UniProtKB/TrEMBL annotation:
Belongs to the short-chain dehydrogenases/reductases (SDR) family. It comes from Candidatus Opimibacter skivensis. This is SDR family oxidoreductase. GO terms for molecular function: oxidoreductase activity, acting on the CH-OH group of donors, NAD or NADP as acceptor. PANTHER family: SHORT-CHAIN DEHYDROGENASE_REDUCTASE FAMILY PROTEIN, SHORT-CHAIN DEHYDROGENASES/REDUCTASES FAMILY MEMBER. PROSITE patterns: ADH_SHORT. InterPro entries: NAD(P)-bd_dom_sf, Sc_DH/Rdtase_CS, SDR_fam.
Length: 268
């Protein structure tokens, strides 16, 4: 699909794109012809590496620093995007983090930090993107006025002890995405989520780093491999393109079957 340049003429903002899933989404969208704003909060080197990778394939990209939970930063990022590329057509609402703690040890600060980035950050970026979609109006580049892809997780569905802030943020993303889809569909704005399962990134290094850890993790994955960031980048390209024009308000699980309750495979 990438060689088809299915996103030619369009511009994407990818948040949290200096590493992991966000970086892979930025590169995949860039390889598919989109101009890309590679957002980062604290890792300029990672963001520049993504920009270079996109440019090496003949694409256009810039790095842009912004804390997605800060409204002024978000407004500046979208202004930079519009000043540079004219508009925005695609938002990959990816920036997210984990700060785990057992329930009784979780401070209010830790709770708020994760909710602010993972959920409020997606709200702020979606609002800024939709404002621009509406201002700009339809173009010949897509059947939709704009596309929003929210990065969720299998933990929008699977409860996760020891990670209540993270699981609550992803459960929130699920109904935010669906409510947005209901509200924005009549304006021809498509809103969907990707729910990755276990993907090899820095966020879950401990779960796959050693052979023993990986073996334990594979018990939870019927397809018997840990995911790659490219698995998610490919899904993002499809959801951003008109190949998925009738897909709206849906969570696409890209998880090797992690949500199939593999613990029940031999007996209930
Ligand atoms: C988490 C990872 C975890 C995966 C599957 C993701 O949303 O960020 O740490 O490995 O879900 O449990």
């Amino acid at each position: 699909m990438k060689s088809l340049k299915v996103l030619e003429g369009q511009t994407a903002v990818v948040t949290g794109a200096s590493s992991g899933i966000g970086k892979a989404c930025a590169i995949a969208l860039g390889e598919s012809g989109a101009n890309v704003v590679v957002n980062y909060a604290g890792n300029p080197e990672g963001a520049l590496a993504a920009v270079e990778a996109i440019k090496a394939e003949g694409g256009n990209a810039i790095a842009c620093k912004a804390d997605v939970s800060n409204i002024a930063d978000v407004e500046n990022m979208f202004k930079t995007c519009i000043d540079t590329f004219g508009t925005v057509d695609i938002l990959v609402n990816n920036a997210g983090l984990q700060k785990d703690a057992p329930f009784l040890e979780m401070s209010l600060e830790t709770w708020n930090y994760v909710l602010n980035v993972n959920l409020t950050g997606q709200f702020l970026c979606a609002q800024a993107a939709v404002r621009e979609f509406v201002r700009r109006g339809m173009t010949k580049n897509s059947q939709a006025l704009g596309k929003i892809i929210c990065m969720s997780s299998v933990h929008e569905l699977i409860p996760w002890a020891g990670h209540i802030n993270y699981a609550a943020s992803k459960g929130g993303v699920m109904l935010m995405m669906k409510s947005l889809a209901q509200e924005l569909g009549p304006m021809k704005i498509r809103v969907n989520s990707i729910a990755p399962g276990a993907i090899k990134t820095p966020i879950n290094r401990m779960a796959w780093e050693t052979p023993e850890a990986e073996k334990r993790l594979l018990r939870l994955i019927p397809y018997k491999r840990v995911g790659t960031t490219e698995d998610i980048g490919n899904a993002a390209v499809w959801l951003a393109s008109d190949f998925s024009d009738y897909v709206h308000g849906t969570t696409l699980f890209v998880d090797g079957g992690m949500t199939l309750y593999p613990g029940f495979e031999d007996n209930g």
